[in-house]
Design brief:
12-stranded parallel beta sheet; 11-stranded parallel beta sheet; single chain; 4 domains; mainly beta; 5 helices
């Protein structure tokens, strides 16, 4: 009997020890932060902190104790306005503890990089119902986005206008569109005569009476758009001179490029229109009927970024941090980003050059930046979050980052695109960049991307560049000017680091609405072991004003190869369902798909449609 009792006691001790260990492993600590709190409080539910920065600092000390398995920072309802980005280091996370910034219960916390405007509007023109606001010099900088009551307001804009080709001395450029060597010729011309890239001829009297002192021109090309401030207008010759260079000489794709003039008082006509006088630092706004702007809440973006997680290559990664149920809002749409800035700085034929203005970049507008930066980050997740009113891409999963998960979230009304995975290098192997630099094993799942690329028109919902073993699945993507998903960043058949990616069960529709030469899915370069499968791609149109090549369900561009394309449905495409450029069908493993213009495999239509988009991912 004693022997049995001894055994029972030993078992009980073991159970108690296991229970204690399990309790220790699952020990959780809760902090609370509220816009109605105070940073001198205790951080409890009844005495919350005021700022996320204070909670972050508190968490660092908690992590040092190694006492907790999970630390939850509960964000209460309301707006957390940042005066600088939240910068995370390795000390803000831990290999053995999950740190999560989480909406408390069903509340709606907002992390904002915006600044509210003072309610000091005065009526400036009673007849046109135009109001004016003196904006404090420390608010907003060069304001090119304005929001009110949860809506983006339309900056004063001309009707759609059309160029008349290059200025006289570069009339020969208009013929280049038919020459296969035109891209090389462009670079040669750029090194000698930058003026061809900073000027164009306009039509009729389009710019004769336009106030261009604060204006920007949004110039459409084939697959991208550029922004330019105006240096001068020559009314006698009908020439306009731009302060920043384009990537291509205007007239390269067509003599009749579309363009708009924005932020000119000449077009301050309709209710909701606004204009910013940079020199006087004044906002002008057209009110609607009896509307009083002083009764409304106006916001301008103040920050370029909301979150920076960036550890050095040789340092420990930032890890095990989650964001759950948070709305990220308001960042700048930067200017002064010019792809050819090094060449332009040497130019002597454009004395009015001002490289602090304008925007020009590569396709997908990758240079416009991102509001959340992850570099050398591991096991970071964003779940049930929303990303709205940001001026750039929402997020970049950058160098050395692994196991980043973006799930069940919504991206809308963004100046740029949704998520960039990778980094901007076209030939990393030749540049001796090791493969460890390339982000890997990341997941974008069950997200909704729509109404993006408001400012940077060639942005895409998801872009994969020199990155491998990623999964993009069950997302819905729609209402974009350019492509839905872009995968690959190598022009040609060179070895690269874009490989083993899976793009599956995505519902992509109503993209390519303004630009040309793209697709629902766009690929570049060899992509060994990558799979494009079970995607439903539809309603791919082409604007009557688009110039350049055609739009497709899937566009396999230069060097696309070594990937499998299986069980996709492509229908309602204005041009070809699929297209190859400087590659061919023999370079891609195309298996059983439904392409509407070559009807076969009809049974896939309902099967794939039932599988795609909005499927919760854990």
């Amino acid at each position: 009997m004693k022997k049995h009792l001894k055994i029972i006691c030993i078992i009980a001790l073991i159970i108690n020890a296991c229970s204690f260990t399990l309790f220790a492993q699952n020990k959780e600590f809760n902090l609370f932060v509220s816009p109605a709190g105070n940073d001198s409080n205790a951080g409890t539910i009844t005495s919350p902190f005021l700022t996320i920065a204070k909670a972050k600092a508190y968490v660092k000390n908690l992590l040092k104790s190694k006492s907790y398995n999970t630390i939850t920072i509960n964000l209460r309802d309301g707006v957390f306005t940042l005066d600088q980005p939240l910068v995370f280091t390795k000390d803000d996370g831990d290999a053995n503890c999950i740190v999560q910034y989480k909406a408390y219960q069903t509340e709606n916390p907002v992390i904002s990089g915006g600044a509210p405007l003072p309610r000091k509007w005065v009526l400036a023109d009673r007849g046109k119902n135009i109001w004016k606001l003196d904006v404090p010099r420390n608010v907003g900088g060069d304001i090119n986005q304005l929001f009110s009551e949860g809506q983006r307001l339309i900056r004063s804009r001309s009707p759609m206008l059309y160029t008349a080709g290059p200025i006289t001395q570069y009339a020969r450029i208009s013929g280049w569109v038919k020459q296969p060597t035109r891209f090389t010729a462009t670079q040669q011309l750029k090194s000698k005569e930058l003026l061809a890239f900073c000027s164009f001829a306009y039509t009729g009297n389009d710019l004769d009476n336009v106030d261009v002192s604060n204006a920007e021109i949004l110039l459409y090309h084939s697959w991208d758009c550029t922004w330019h401030s105006v240096g001068n207008v020559d009314k006698s010759n009908k020439f306009v001179y731009l302060k920043s260079p384009d990537v291509y000489p205007i007239g390269f794709f067509s003599n009749t490029n579309r363009y708009y003039v924005e932020n000119s008082r000449s077009f301050l006509n309709n209710p909701g229109d606004w204009y910013f006088d940079k020199k006087a630092h004044e906002l002008w706004y057209v009110a609607n009927g009896n509307e009083d702007p002083n009764a409304k809440h106006f916001v301008v973006p103040q920050l370029d970024k909301l979150i920076i997680m960036q550890a050095d290559a040789n340092a420990d990664p930032i890890q095990n941090i989650k964001f759950i149920g948070i709305d990220f809002q308001y960042t700048n749409a930067p200017r002064g980003i010019n792809k050819e800035s090094k060449l332009a700085a040497k130019a002597t034929d454009v004395p009015w050059l001002d490289l602090s203005t304008g925007f020009s970049g590569s396709q997908t507008a990758v240079e416009c930046g991102e509001s959340i930066t992850l570099v050398n980050a591991r096991n970071i997740s964003f779940d049930r979050c929303t990303f709205t009113f940001l001026g750039t891409y929402a997020m970049r999963i950058g160098e050395y980052s692994q196991n980043i998960r973006v799930l069940n979230s919504e991206f809308s009304d963004l100046g740029g695109g949704g998520v960039l995975i990778g980094y901007n290098n076209r030939n990393p192997i030749a540049a001796h960049i090791p493969i460890e630099v390339s982000p890997s094993n990341n997941l974008i799942g069950n997200c909704k991307f729509h109404d993006l690329a408001i400012v940077y028109k060639s942005s895409v919902a998801i872009s994969i560049m020199q990155s491998h073993h990623n999964t993009v699945m069950s997302n819905e993507i729609y209402n974009l000017p350019y492509s839905g998903i872009s995968c690959g960043w190598t022009w040609g058949f060179m070895d690269n680091y874009t490989s083993s990616n899976t793009i599956t069960k995505n519902n992509i529709h109503d993209v390519m609405r303004e630009l040309a030469d793209g697709g629902g899915i766009y690929t570049l370069g060899p992509q060994q072991n990558s799979v494009i499968k079970n995607n439903y791609i539809s309603n791919i149109s082409r604007s009557k004003d688009a110039v350049g090549s055609r739009n497709n369900g899937i566009f396999f561009d230069q060097g696309s190869s070594l990937m499998k394309v299986d069980s996709n449905v492509i229908r309602s495409v204005q041009n070809e369902d699929i297209r190859f450029n400087q590659t061919g069908a023999d370079k891609v493993d195309i298996e059983k798909n439904y392409f509407e213009k070559t009807p076969q495999n009809n049974g896939l239509i309902n099967v794939v449609k039932s599988q795609v988009g909005n499927k919760k991912v854990n």
